[in-house]
Design the sequence.
């Protein structure tokens, strides 16, 4: 089902396992969800990565399995156990102004990151040959617009 980029609207197919990125799974739920590679969350820590893991975890209607290795997985288990020890309460420490500034910076995407994310989404939706054709057309159009809008100085011959 993961290879069928057009059938993702039908997130569940009887007798099949749905493989999806967090982005594709958004808005969908399943009775059993596997989050693979939780250790990666701590390799590149940031608000965006944590939000993605939270989104992945909340896709489960009933059972959630999380896998990971090494220190990153242990850090996650420690955080999870700390949160569970406070049940049924969720302890939240309001961040300082400096922490908020840092979080906002982490959430902002650079133009390159926006392009990468958009291309990744398109790769999931279009066959590679169709994506290449669309990108080539867009590049030709952009180059044509730039040529037409560029002011070319006029030179006159002195007599």
Sequence:
């Amino acid at each position: 089902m993961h290879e069928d980029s057009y059938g993702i609207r039908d997130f569940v197919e009887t007798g099949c396992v749905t493989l999806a990125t967090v982005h594709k799974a958004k808005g969908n739920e399943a009775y059993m969800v596997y989050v693979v590679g939780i250790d990666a969350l701590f390799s590149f820590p940031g608000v965006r990565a944590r939000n993605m893991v939270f989104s992945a975890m909340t896709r489960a209607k009933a059972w959630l399995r999380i896998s990971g290795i090494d220190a990153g997985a242990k850090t996650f288990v420690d955080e999870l156990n700390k949160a569970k020890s406070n049940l049924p309460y969720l302890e939240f420490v309001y961040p300082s102004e400096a922490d908020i500034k840092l979080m906002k910076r982490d959430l902002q995407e650079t133009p390159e990151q926006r392009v990468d994310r958009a291309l990744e989404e398109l790769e999931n939706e279009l066959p590679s040959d169709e994506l290449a054709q669309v990108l080539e057309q867009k590049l030709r159009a952009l180059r044509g617009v730039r040529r037409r809008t560029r002011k070319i100085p006029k030179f006159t011959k002195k007599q």
User: Anything to note?
Assistant: The chain has a mean pLDDT of 80. The longest strand covers residues 60-67. The two ends are 74 Å apart (CA to CA). Helices lie at 22-25, 47-57, 70-85, 97-107, 111-125, 128-149.
